[in-house]
Amino acid sequence: MRPKILLTNDDGVYSNGIWATYQALSGFADVTVVAPATQQSAVGRSISIFEPIRATRIAVDGAPAWSVGGKPTDAVIIGLFALDLKPDLVVSGINIGENLSYESIMTSGTVGAALEASNHGFPSVAFSLQVWDQGDKFDDPRHCGSSFDEAKRIVRDVCERLIARGFPSHADVINVNIPSHVQGGYEVTRLARKLFHTGVERRLDPRGRPYFWINGPLVEDAEEGTDVHAIRKGNISVTPITLDCTAGAAGADLSSLFE
């Protein structure tokens, strides 16, 4: 029996990244693509609860897929509960641009989709590919200039390992970040605190009214053992993530505060 994989993303169903992943996985698994109809980067785990969600059967280069008019989380829910898919693994990506640090995974639609799947009991893994030109993150994902050749090999290897050997205990999602030029091997990492130096640029529109752009350069590096540092070294960062956001170490201090 070939394993069953639900494949989604946040760059949209026509992104080069998701179809690179499809090519990597369809050789050994039955892959069903259920992904947002349009670009949905940085929406996190947001969900459509105030409007209907439309899902349309399409074909991309002859391969069938479902185009979902909603968020990555919506696509996962449609796949699991409307289409009644029962995947052995849920895969999100390949995202165009890295998803590293607390900061990034809290807003990432790629990781958000994987977290949603895990919340419903399905093992899930998110893949992201580092880009040197940050503009690639905001260009049309159907025409990304990055090469996915090495990333496809890594995607297949990781997924085959997870399916053959079982999902690691105490992890809900495996977050995999692939450097644009792989110089080392796999490195199991923890999340760094930040990926960007956040800034805000104030501008004026043609009528003289102010508006703002959130911007800021990438963090140059982070401490040893973090996902940011691994990618800067050229290693493939593999980070276990848990849905449980409870800060257990703060319990004693908090209890004393409310005595």
TrEMBL record:
Enzyme class: hydrolase
Binding site for a divalent metal cation: D10, D11, S41, N95
UniProt remark on cofactor binding: Binds 1 divalent metal cation per subunit.
Pfam families: SurE
Catalytic reaction annotation: a ribonucleoside 5'-phosphate + H2O = a ribonucleoside + phosphate
Survival protein SurE-like phosphatase/nucleotidase domain residues: 5-195
Highest taxon of source: Archaea
Catalytic activity, EC: 3.1.3.5
Localisation: Cytoplasm
The keyword DNA-binding is annotated on this UniProt entry: no
Cleavable signal peptide: none
Example GO molecular function: nucleotide binding
Main localization (coarse): cytoplasm
UniProt keyword list: Cytoplasm, Hydrolase, Metal-binding, Nucleotide-binding
Matches recorded under Gene3D superfamilies: Survival protein SurE-like phosphatase/nucleotidase
Needed cofactors: a divalent metal cation
Keyword Nucleotide-binding (UniProt): yes
InterPro entries, A to Z: SurE, SurE-like_Pase/nucleotidase, SurE-like_sf
GO CC, one annotated term: cytoplasm
Function: Nucleotidase that shows phosphatase activity on nucleoside 5'-monophosphates.
UniProt-listed NCBIfam families: PRK00346.2-1 (NF001491), surE (TIGR00087)
UniProt family annotation: Belongs to the SurE nucleotidase family.
Protein name per UniProt: 5'-nucleotidase SurE
Species assigned in the record: Methanofollis fontis
Gene: surE
